[in-house]
Every structure is written in structure tokens, then in C-alpha cells.
Amino acid sequence: MTGANSGIGREVSLGLARLGGSVLLLCRRPAEGERVRQFILARQPGADVSVVACDVGDFGSIRRAAARLLGEWPRLDVLVHNAGATFPPRTMTADGIEATLAVNVVGPFLLTSLLRQRLESCRGRVITLTGIYQRKGHVDTNDLHFAHRPYDWLVANNQAQRGRWLFMSELARRAGQLMTASVHPGAVLTGAQVRLPRLVRALIHTLARPAFVRPEVGAIPVLRLAVHPELQHLTGRFFDRCRLAPDVADPALARAFWEACEDMTGEHLPKAHGTLKALGSGAGSSRTPVAEIG
Predict the structure, then answer these.
(1) Is residue 3 exposed (0-12), middle (13-18) or buried (19+ Cβ within 10 Å)?
(2) DSSP states of 235-259 as a string?
(3) In 182-270, which ranges are continuous DSSP H helix?
(4) Does domain 7-292 fall into CATH 3.40.640.10?
(5) pLDDT digit string (tens) for 254-276?
(6) What is the torsional sign of CA 242, 160, 266, 263?
(7) Closest listed residue to residue 258, CA positions, set 152, 133, 147, 173
(8) CA-CA distance, 232 to 225, in Å (whole number)?
(9) Using an 8 Å Cβ cutoff, are 37 and 43 in contact?
(10) Beta carbons of 134 and 158 less than 8 angstroms apart
(11) CA 95 to CA 202: how far, in whole Å?
């Protein structure tokens, strides 16, 4: 579980521990991860919970975390990508990636690529939390880092959110032994808002606050996707909370974005041989659900 130090990440980790899972908390700051571990143990005594240092915005940190995971845990059944961040000023990482894209998509892509074989051997699942505004996102594969267009933090965030969904869709095509899904857990107040401009934070915490749900409520659809026994066939899809949305990713764009992530990370998977069955009319289609997970 990435981004396990607070909010939904903490609540999903607690839920998995209560279900009897061995929970690995991947946190940028291990001390914060240890606080979450103690939080879980206080509510679920005897739970198997470990902290792994991992900064998803740093390729070196990701590779070290993956090496530890592969070396110490023979089974990896579920990988949940929850860590995310928004950077109002344009920021580049040490690896030369625009920071919003790095933390939200490229880092998770690298981590998944490094763990893919272990996950596939366990017929595992990869779940990515994605904002509903991915529907408004435009992924410019010719200028992912805003080098040639004005930087806007909302545009960058929407691009990254859509990129997360494209990543899950293409992973489903390339890794047939995995179940993958993107899920919008609802509007949840978390620490992720801390980097937003002060005025935006004020609006969120006043006018928009009634529309937000508690982290423990937002964790429910994530937990269902992680453990529900009858969802393996719904791979590569987008869920709006507990509802399977009709959105279907553009396969050409998903492939192009995947290849861009390969170039940025140096990790490559075989090309896809199949396509996902379209259950809706595309990304701009109605939000009317075609299925609901109970």
C-alpha cells in the first residue's frame, strides 16, 4: 500500500489487516509509517504489519523498496497505488520528471513493473486510486512535462489522474494474470490538499466540505476491489466508488502513454495481444453504472 501514512491509505491498510492480510505500508517517511503500524496494532492486535521506505517520486527509492519486497515476501497478492501529490508550481524531480506526473503515475508504473512477475505468479491485483476529474484530463504524450505549454497545476493533476487510468487499462492488456482497476473513492479530505494554493484549501474546507466523505468511507470501494472474489474478470476498468463506470480507455492513447512511461523508467513489458471488452461508449459517456459491486 503506497501512501499509507494517512487518510484512505491508513484506513485501507487497517481494513486489510482486519481481513487477515499481511500488510506492507510503503511510506516516504518511515517514522510516519511506524505511527500507522501502531495505529493498526492498537485496533487489530496481532496484525502482521510492516513498514517499507518508499518515495514514489524517486526512482532510486522505488528500486530499493522493490528489492526489499521481493527479497522478504514470497507472496504479493495486492498492490494498491494510493500515494499522490499536486504541485502548484512546476517542479521537476531528480529523475527529470514533472513532479505531479512522477508521483501519481511514473513512480507507480516503475514499482508495478519491478513487482509484476511476483504479482502475476500470485494472480494478484493492482488497484489505483484515481480522481473523477481524470475524465477532464488531456494526456499530451508529446509534452508530458509542460516544457512547451504553460504549466497549470489543475491541468497537470487531471493529466496525471487520466494517466493513472490509462496505465491500469494497458497493464490489463499486457499482464493477463493480473486484475487491474482504477477507482474514484469519492471526495475525501486528506493531507493531499496541503500543497494546494491557500484560497483553494479555504474553499475546500468551507464551501465544499459537505460534499466530502470520511477516509474510512472512501476506503470501502478500494477494499472491495482488493478482495472481492468475483471481480477478476473486470480488469482494466474504472470504478466510480462501488459502481463500474462505462468509461473505456482509448487503446491507442493508453499504448502511447505506456511507451512514454517505459522510456522514462527504462522498464519494458511485452506488447499487448488482446483488447478489453467495451462496456460503454467511451470516456465521455454517461455515468450510469453497468454493474455494481456489493
Answers:
(1) buried
(2) TTEEEETTEE------HHHHHHHHH
(3) 198-205, 215-227, 251-265
(4) no
(5) 999 999 999 999 998 776 555 45
(6) positive
(7) 173
(8) 9
(9) no
(10) yes
(11) 33
DSSP 8-state secondary structure symbol assigned to residue 192: G
How do residues 105-144 score in pLDDT, each as one tens digit? 999 999 999 999 999 999 999 999 998 877 888 999 999 9
CA distances from 237 to 54, 67, 193, 222, 230 (A): 27, 29, 26, 13, 14
Angle formed by the axes of helices 153-174 and 107-121, nearest 10°: 20
pLDDT tens digits for range 159-217: 999 999 999 999 999 999 999 999 999 877 655 545 556 655 555 555 445 556 788 99
Tell the residue number behind the cell numbers 466510480, with chain if given. Answer: 240
Max CA distance (Å), the chain: 53
Residue 273: CB atoms within 10 Å: 8
CA distance 13 to 25: 8
Torsion over CA: 185, 189, 194, 198 (sign): positive
- Convert the pLDDT of each residue in 40-62 to its tens digit: 999 999 999 999 999 999 999 99
